[in-house]
Amino acid sequence: MASKHLINSPSTLVIESLEALCLLNSELRLDRDSRVLFRPFSSGSSQKVALICGGGSGHEPAHAAFVGKGLLTAAVSGSVFASPSGKQVRRAVELVHPRNSNFGSAEGAGTLIIVKNYTGDVLNFGLAKEALASFPVYTNAVRFLTVADDVSVPRSRITLVGRRGLAGTVLLYKITGELAARGANLNEVENVGLYVAGNLATIGVATGHSHVPGTERGQDVLGEDEIEVGMGIHNEPGVLRLRGSNGSPPPISEIMPRLITLLTASQEEDPERGWVSFLPSANVVLMVNNLGGLSPLELSAVSLEASKSISEKGLNIRRVLCGTYMTSLNMPGFSLTLLKLPNSEQEVGQGPSQDQILSLLDTSAEAPGWGWVSGRPPVALSNQIVSSSSSGSTSTSSKPPLPDDKYAEEVVKAITRACDALIHAEPELTRMDTVAGDGDCGLTLKAGAQGVLSLLQSNEITGHDLPAAFIAIAGVAEDKMGGTSGGLYSIFFSALAQGIRSSSTTEVDWPSALHHALTKLYTYTRARPPSRTLVDPLDAFVTSLPTEETEFQNSFQKAQEAARATRGMQAKAGRAVYGGGEEGGGEMDPGAWGVAVLLNAIRDKGRQ
Question: Residue 410's domain spans which residues?
Answer without folding.
Answer: 405-603
